[in-house]
Amino acid sequence: MKKYFQIKVAGLVQGVGFRPFVYRMAIKHKLSGTVENRNDGVKIVVYTDEKTLQDFVQDINTSAPPASMIFSVDVTEIAAVNPFSDFSIVKSASVSEEVTEVSPDIAVCSDCMEDIASQPNRIKYPFVNCTNCGPRFTIITDLPYDREKTSMHPFVMCDQCKKEYTDILDRRFHAQPVACNDCGPQYTMKSTAQSETNIEDILTHAARLLEQGDVLAIKGLGGYFICCDAQNEQACLRIRNMKNRDGKPFAVMFRDMESLSKFAKVSDAEKELLTSWRRPIVLLKQREMSHPALNSGLDRIGCMLPYMPFHYLLFDKLQLPALVMTSGNISEEPIIIDDSLAESTFGPLTSGVLSYNRAIANRCDDSVLFVVNEKARFIRRSRGYVPNPVRLSIDVEGILATGPELKNTFALGKGQQAILSQHIGDLKNLETFEFYTETIERFSKLFRFKPKLIASDLHPDYMSTAFADGLNLPVIRVQHHHAHIASCLAEAQYDGKVIGVSFDGTGLGDDQAIWGGEFLLCDLAGYERIAHLEYVPLPGGDHAAKEPWRMAISYLNATFGDAFMGFDLPFLRTLDRKKVNLLLQGITQGLNCPPTSSAGRLFDAVSALTGICLTHSFEAEGPMLLEAMIKKDCQETYPHEYKNGILSFSPMIMEMVNDVLFKTPSEIIAARFHNTLINSIVDVCESIAATSGLRTVALSGGVFMNAYILEHTEKQLIQQGFRVLTNTQVPANDGGIALGQLAVAATISQLK
Ligand code: ZN
Ligand code: ZN
Ligand code: FE
């Protein structure tokens, strides 16, 4: 028997082709009824029998457009309404037709890949796309999401494309970037000898150059990339030289899952992430060591799969299994998006610049994740994720969080949603700061946002703090490590008190010291600092993070006094005595040596003390090498001391020095050190739990980018009966700070 039903779909269902999708499903099931946009999602009314209804709802759940996110589907029987003659999309009176949701970019779908093999006007067309795939965020300049408001604007649709675009039963109905060989954007390749525009010629030429070890610049979705054969050490070294000896590990794009699995171990959770439409870079354990020019001597490799049609077409021509795809920037500047800048920068340095004539409206780096304890964690949240909001349990409307100084992202509050920007970078760099202010403007326009309250870091010298102050609006300052823990509470929608373990690089404390190893009793409204790492001098301030040997000297001096100068430590022998004496003088006189409780700097000290890394060639190189070195299944530890809220690692340093003097393998020292840190966290949490009665711990801060520390700290705390909150929607490093700032400012302002 037929009845009337109402189906309410809540979630991210606007701006992703959801209503046409519902329409097509309704036609498939021969349903009559309506679909309309509502403030809280999409409302569907149908007149049908129970069985057809079930099939229809199942299709909605299983075949929804990839970029949509369904939170709930509620079906209720309703009283009879006016009978329907067909199925239609109706305009809703209750909600403005102006869609304010913007989809992230979506990897090319399999249907489109079939089209470029068979559709006459799309044979080998490198910009093929449909409602289910293609560029989104990177091409949009304003809302509503219409072709005129994207960088597809200059391209006039041919008749064939127009037909698909306007036919609601077509997969390309209202696919704004729809295009084909006759009407859409085209690639060009410029090399010293020539300029090519035929896609077949470009692919053949590019493949030949890459195979012979040449370096190319290739325009991607969110910026230019520098590209070479990943297995060719000389080619990788050439890229390192181009990028001013940048030592960071390169990301690698593999032809397919099969080739990738030969290089790296892939779990089910990692495979799911790699093949998802978001196509991030995933850090994976490699099967055997690569050449150091590729991933800097680490045991992991940043892997991804093709996501643009062009990537697939290129691999079709290539004999190689893997290509380096590293961001096209020089030093710390943002990834290049401007075509003429790319040509003048990369032209003289590479064998060819591959470009296309559609502008990148929003710069966007690749996202980077890793999997620990079966959960995906962010290192960098950008392409494929931005600008999806993070759902909160508190109202954050009208708040702008300006974020940290390094790895900056900012966040805007819209209702109970936080919209985080893509990765911006290091704001001390002038070009990056420009990118920051432009992006705040772009986001404000896109999301119809006008700030009325600003949240910023406590540090007066951060560019993001100065920017906050320049807006002439009320500002709430949020302590850096409180913000880390708050980011974790906000994404978990947790509104109680927790024991917050904020283990990090650096952030300014409320006592003007440099914090980074903090145990906070806190909620979103405030914190009490219960315990922290014992202060040691931070010789040279910010310099110390780049030169781990400074922290080794500082820890040795704190543990042994200057008697350590008589120890026969291999790393000391390689240092210039004069430099060491000068540093010691600085420490005793307190010159540019603020006290620090940073856990990140303890990692630095250990990496220098063991001789693994004395000077960083990229951020956190020492700690990363140390982690890569850990001897598997070694359970041993060093002692630590916890008294009156001070966690001291002097007992550990004493034994570690002995280990180094007696030539204990670094693999064992690294394991013992990591185990000690994990033990000490659990130990201090137990102690705080005993006095506070709290059994929930939140772990956040840059140290939890360390997979070993995160895995075992989380496991051990759970074993001890704690509930453990960790970041899974934003990075635990400074890339997630803005979310914490936003949540704290919202909570404080509502208390007033
Ligand atoms: Zn598609
Ligand atoms: Zn066309
Ligand atoms: Fe931090």
Please describe what this structure looks like.
- The protein has 752 residues and is α/β, with parallel strands linked by helices.
- The N and C termini lie far apart (57 Å).
- Strand 6 and strand 7 (195-196) form a beta hairpin.
- It has 5 domains: 3-89, Alpha-Beta Plaits, CATH 3.30.70; 102-185, DHBP synthase, CATH 3.90.870.30; 187-356, DHBP synthase (Alpha-Beta Complex), CATH 3.90.870; 386-530 and 731-751, 2-Layer Sandwich (Nucleotidyltransferase, domain 5); 532-699, ATPase, nucleotide binding domain (Nucleotidyltransferase, domain 5).
- The protein is globular, with a radius of gyration of 27 Å.
- The model has no long low-confidence stretch (mean pLDDT 95).
- Helix content is 34%, strand content 21%.
- The longest helix has 27 residues, at 666-692.
- The strands form 5 sheets. An 11-stranded mixed beta sheet has the order 7-6-14-8-9-13-10-12-11-15-16, with helices on both faces. The chain has a 7-stranded mixed beta sheet with strand order 28-29-25-24-23-30-31, sandwiched between helices.
- The structure holds zinc ion (2 copies) and fe (iii) ion (FE).
- Residues 109, 111-112, 129-130, 132-133 line the site of one zinc ion.
- One zinc ion binds at residues 121, 157-158, 160-161, 179-180, 182-183.
Task: Please render the helix and strand layout as text.
Layout (H helix, E strand, L loop, with lengths): L2 E10 L5 H11 L3 E7 L2 E8 L1 H14 L5 E10 L8 E3 L20 H9 L40 H8 L20 E4 L4 E2 L2 H13 L4 E4 L4 E6 L3 H10 L8 E4 L2 H7 L4 H8 L5 E5 L6 H4 L4 E5 L4 H9 L4 E6 L11 H8 L5 E5 L11 E5 L2 E6 L9 E2 L7 E3 L9 E4 L2 E4 L9 H17 L6 E5 L5 H7 L5 E4 L1 H13 L5 E11 L5 E9 L4 E7 L2 E2 L10 H13 L9 H4 L3 H13 L5 E2 L2 H11 L11 H9 L11 E3 L2 E3 L1 H12 L4 H27 L3 E5 L6 H13 L3 E4 L10 H15 L1
Parallel strand pairs: 2-5, 8-14, 10-12, 11-15, 18-21, 21-22, 23-30, 25-29, 30-31
Antiparallel strand pairs: 1-3, 1-4, 2-3, 6-7, 6-14, 8-9, 9-13, 10-13, 11-12, 15-16, 17-20, 18-19, 19-20, 23-24, 24-25, 26-27, 28-29
Fe (iii) ion (FE) binds next to helix 14 and strand 23.
